[in-house]
Structures are given as structure tokens and as C-alpha cells.
């Protein structure tokens, strides 16, 4: 079992603590929180060991799980890596691209492994159909959330949209060529609603919308590719897979057949992948343990987390000078 320690005991940090405690791949050593009052309260309430010194916790573990505010990700990760510890770091990987790129250098320098907490990669709806998403040419995503003051210190792109950016980059085997985006600040100092259009070198286009002031929650993505349409509902954990194939010469009475203007006939059929219930956060933590033990590349590597941040920051840069105040 890998010895693990958690930095940060806020809302998400407490979830990580509970899951690491339950996991049979980790031994939870304890946690550190800069807020001593909160740290002692969490320790008293849940029985976890509280370290009032970050360095002492880092020295006691094999894996450092960083669940602190984004502004402190870099310093926490750097300290852990310099001590030769593997790091799991919540998204976004860091606050700036320069910080993320330095972590890549440190990862190689100290021979450690790192994974970024893009949890939607472990969403059972996405994992059930990811293998079927082959060379998508148009992607549309909507990630809408009801207002919650937590997280409004950063633009909605880094708070919400980055989930979809990472998922898209994981299935589009091409570089981003052009970005056009707009963002609106309604209630926060940073944009609360954003829309971005990503154009890739291979011709794929992705249209992303994110809002944190919606009346309802929605997390849906749709992938269009040759002879297939795939819809993923990350919130409800449901999928729709609609495919087309050449129509048989003698279709059955219940076969759905379409004919285009050129006279080509296609048969429409549906697939229903099995979606297994899971805890995505536990899965991502245990997948990282497997990567460490087996010396394999983490499912969401620091490099991939850096690429997602790079695109997110490019989106923000494209509208930051033209924010609309309502």
C-alpha cells in the first residue's frame, strides 16, 4: 500500500480523505490544512491525523494529494516533488502555464509521477463510450451549474469548462489551430458565462458553453463523426449511441433506412453500452496508485493537465479584454 497524505481539508479535500481511508491501495497517513482551526476540527470530527507542518506530512508519505486552492497548487507540488514524492493534483493543474511547465521539468528531474484530477475522464458514461469516439469532426458541450459562491474566484473557464476541454483533447488527435471565445461577468468579478469555438488542424470543430449562473444543472457533450452520433450526459450518467451502416438489399419491416440525395441508403441502429456505477474520484485516485505500482503513464498525466490549462488560458485571453458587465 502507498502511504498518502492530503494537503487541504476543504469540501473536496474531505472527500479525498474519506476515499483514501476506504481504499485498499493507500494507507492514509494524515493531512495538512493551513487553517489550523479547520484542521483540528476535521481531525476531531473524522479521526484523521492532522499535521500542523506541511513538510512533516510530505516526509511521511509516498504520495501527496493536493486539494488546496489553485493559487497554491504550484508551491505545494514543487515542495512535494523536490522531496521525491508522487503527486496527485486537483484541476486546474496550476494557476499559470509557466508554473505547469515547470512541474513537467521537475517531474522528469526527480523521476516521480503525477496525475491531474480531471475527474470526468472517470465518469462511467464517458468511459463506456470513449473507445467509440473515433475522429469526431464536430463536438458540442454544455456545462451549466446553479450559482455557488465557491469557485467564483476564478473564471468559469477554469472552474467548469476545463473539464470539457480536457475530455475533448483526450479524443481529438490533433492540435488546436484557432480559438474564438466570449465571456460575460454577471455576478462575479470574473466571467460567469463563456462560449468558445475551438478549431483543430484536422478540421474538427468544438463548440463549448459553460455557465455557473443557470437555473438548472447540465453536463452534456455530443460527438458527431462519420456514420455515428454519440451523446454523453455526465450528470445523469447516460449515453446515446446512434450509428449508420450500409443498408441491406432487403431491409426488414422495422429497419430504419435513410436515403441521401445521391441515392445512397444507410441503416440507422442504436447501441446501448453498459454503464457501471462507480465513484469517479475513488477511481482516479486508485488508477494513479496502479500507474505508480506498474510504472505506467497516468490516465491524466501532468502533460495532459498542462495542455488543458493552456487551452483554457487561451480562451480566457481571447475575451478578457472585452468582458461585459451586466
TrEMBL record:
Gfo/Idh/MocA-like oxidoreductase N-terminal domain ranges (all copies): 3-118
A Pfam entry, by short name: GFO_IDH_MocA_C3
Signal sequence, renumbered to the chain: none
Organism (species): Maribacter chungangensis
Protein name: Gfo/Idh/MocA family protein
Domain (GFO/IDH/MocA-like oxidoreductase): residue spans on this chain: 156-216
